[in-house]
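FYI - complex with zinc ion, inputs then prediction.
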Amino acid sequence: MKKIVVLFLFCSQLAIGSDGYWAKTGHRVVGEIAQEYINGKTKRALKELLGTASLAEVANFADEIKSDTLYRKFGAWHYVNYPLDKKYHEVTPSKWGDIVQAIETCKQKVSDKTLARTERSFYLKFLVHLIGDLHQPMHAGRAEDRGGNDIQLQWFDSGTNLHRVWDGDMINSYGMSFSELADRLSRLSRKEVRTLQQGSVIDWLEESHEIAGRIYGSVNTGEKLMFRYSYLWWPTVEDSLQKGGVRLAKVLNELF
Ligand SMILES: [Zn+2]
């Protein structure tokens, strides 16, 4: 009975049609949750580098600059695709960079106080974005289908692909604002936060990669996805957003 009620509530919140990506709502949720778990010292450092902008506000910056050819070299920074039966360390790192290398670079640049404030701020905004991307499982998918981008699907009546379903179709259709979602997902005890913050960037990546493996098995090319798909996978979406948020806070607290 409970399940039926939940399903009903869920369906009533779904709206048909979307054109978004993890960018926008997803990234903002991650930023907003992180804001709850950063300490005073981190807050002061962020104010110095970001001014009055919140983490949610800067979380999409790295996607927004994508269309500018000047920033093309950062394209490979948002993901890393490798075989599902392999670990990141078993694969030769891309010379174009990948999300793991990028996070490391961002951390170094942000903590380098000899750099100009604008440069440190640029990499800080990038870092906020990348911790979000790291928790979108399809940013750690297979290379042959470009993290699900080449797996065509339908989301209700709109054409989409597996990557986009996870970037935004599910989140946008859920119909909650980023602050509503973040508010719900940031009610955690200290112990829960500590548990979620365990591990390294590589551990978190492998977690996403493992989830990506299951996501690949969840669809057939050309399939029409509707309420049932969201119902099955929404807990994973929320879990990933929540982890992204508390772990971003951890990365920032360690950095400052
Ligand atoms: Zn991105």
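The chain has a mean pLDDT of 91. The first strand starts at residue 152 and ends at 155.
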